[in-house]
Amino acid sequence: MTSRTRVRRLPEKASTDEAVLHAILDQAVVAHIGIVDEGQPFVLPVACARDGDRLLVHGSTGSRLMRQMAQGSPVCATVTLLDGMVLARSAFNSSMHYRSAMILGVAQPVDDALEALRVLTEHLLPGRWEVLREPTRKELAATLVLALPLREWSVKVSDSPPEDEPEDLDDPVWAGVVPLRMVQGDPVPAPDLRFDLPAPVTQA
Question: Rounded CA gap, 184 and 161, in Å?
């Protein structure tokens, strides 16, 4: 933790355990990356995957976000996993269960883009890489794969029950937690699918 990543709001929810950071990133499939371009902040979602002590992201070589990152612009990456709605007896004290991570740093192009793309693909859909054709040279040339080191980061975890005011406890209002989770829906085959194949299963 640094002065830039010290949790100031609700510091009791902060975690400095690197294993908690890794667990959050290992479950996440989307990171929001923030950059500043000519004085204007931009925040964009990208697919992500943790690879050891770095966070992998990829995108088009024509993307402003990817070009800025590749050129060494400082970035802020955030990941949030929403685990539940915390329903208190007042709107003010209602909240959410979440696990969130913020990473600051400078990303760099990876040395082995093909291997990094395999890691990303396998994170998003385990087993998928083995059935896909390899990217062509043209596709690789049009793709930037960047790695953001996990050096400067902060983590917050909210998992407490509602915290109501004592005078609200006698109100006839239900209070508690409504759990939330991401689940896979029924796969929809492509209209031009030519073979009778089992659909892949995504991570829960």
Answer: 27
